[in-house]
Amino acid sequence: MRKYSGIPELLEAYMEENSANEQWITAHELRDHFGLTRYQSNTVSAFLRRLERGPFSQFPFIVAKIALEKGENPSDPKKYRYLLKLRHCFIEKRRQIEYPQLHNSNQ
Length: 107
Fold this sequence. Notes:
CATH class: Mainly Alpha
CATH topology: Arc Repressor Mutant, subunit A
Number of helices: 5
Number of strands: 3
Strand content: 15-25%
Largest sheet: 3 strands, antiparallel
Oligomer: single chain
Strand order of the largest sheet: 1-3-2
Low-confidence stretches: none
Mean pLDDT: 80
Distance between the termini: 38 Å
CATH architecture: Orthogonal Bundle
Order of helices and strands: HEHHEEHH
Radius of gyration: 16 Å
């Protein structure tokens, strides 16, 4: 994960800001949102592709799908959208944090 220093934290922050367990995103949207460089945007794309092939066990999100968006012109660069989803084992943890009164009353 050293190769992707800071990227997992940015993705988590983005998803938490949007209170989303599932969301389509592009590397360009993240670049604009966090003021990243073009190089960092490429690193985000690489990290998202790795999440599709095999999630990092300590990272709460996976990439469920990658979709190619067509540009307006044939010469437009390719743009990919990534469906980022919260892993099932982290959904319960998030519920416990957001609604602790529900989990404490069961004990």
